[in-house]
Amino acid sequence: MKPPMGARALVLLLLLPVGCHALLPLSTPEETNTPDTSATDTSATDTSTDTVIDTSLPIDNSTPQADLAPVDTTPKQDQGVLTWKVMSPSPGTSANFRDVWGMAGKLVVASSDGIWEHAAGTWTHPVTGKDFNAVRIDPNTGAGYAVGSFGAIYHHDNGTWVDTGSSGAHLSGVLVKGSSGIAVGSKATLKAGTSSSWTTVTSYPWPNNATLVCIWGVSTSDYWVGGYPPFWRYQNGQWLKGDFTASGTFNGMSGVGINEVYAVSTFGDIVRFDGAQWKKIHSVTNTTFYDIWARGSGDVFIVGTNGNIQHFNGASWTKMPVPSSTTKTILNGVWGTGTAVYAVGSSGTVLKLGP
Asked: Which of 16, 96, 169, 194 is the most exposed place for a label (fewest CB within 10 A)?
């Protein structure tokens, strides 16, 4: 999803120096200058080129998929043979669609103009006038959160979106487990809470000017946070720093299990954590990637500028063709189910891959 900005107040996480394989024990980091990560798609021609770095890392299948729909574990057909199409009917808006998730026959989109939903062939607009960057819904409970500018947090409960209060930092990513959520944002912001009460965490390992953009995990006690600089893992009450150096901001993160996590960056890099270390596995020049979704091992989708959609089938990456009307579109979010995948982006764009 596309990153924004901000911060708030109070509660404490215990920091203990810990080491784990190539995860480094934490020391107090020095502040670093955060680069401008805003992206606009002004190129007349898509000049992106793929560079394969490494796809030989071992893949861990021991940890069950946590926050995704049930996955068919049979070998996957290369998704490149399917076709991305503009979803019909369209939502009929010029709003910037920034993130997409789903639940029980309903597609949910976080946008620059509130929350949009699609069900039974019809688009609705249950929340208007709010600027959202991310949305997540727990498939087991139906509970979810949408987060956005100026600390906006909306809670989904029994089919209704409820404002839990908006103040402080701009929020760009959220993790949802059961009724609990963890949100990240600009100015080193980390918030934790439930439907009625959210607290800003004031003790953390990253520099005070860090931009936190994405978060993924198997529980609220075991998760990864990414952005600039990357990466940190919270596990059993302790923080570990990922042993990875990058010059760009990581905008999106997704995983199959805690030992198979992927992230994408403003510089077109795709990296993977294999249980021991983060390592670059693919790179595309002249492209900013904003989001990634892992349907299962060897079945990963990423989206970015110039309508760029890439798919990993377990052996190689493929750039997927998109409708000609979307080759200049900035795609900000991607999510899917066992039968369909959706990508959303600028000017109310919604693409669908599948039957």
From this structure: 16
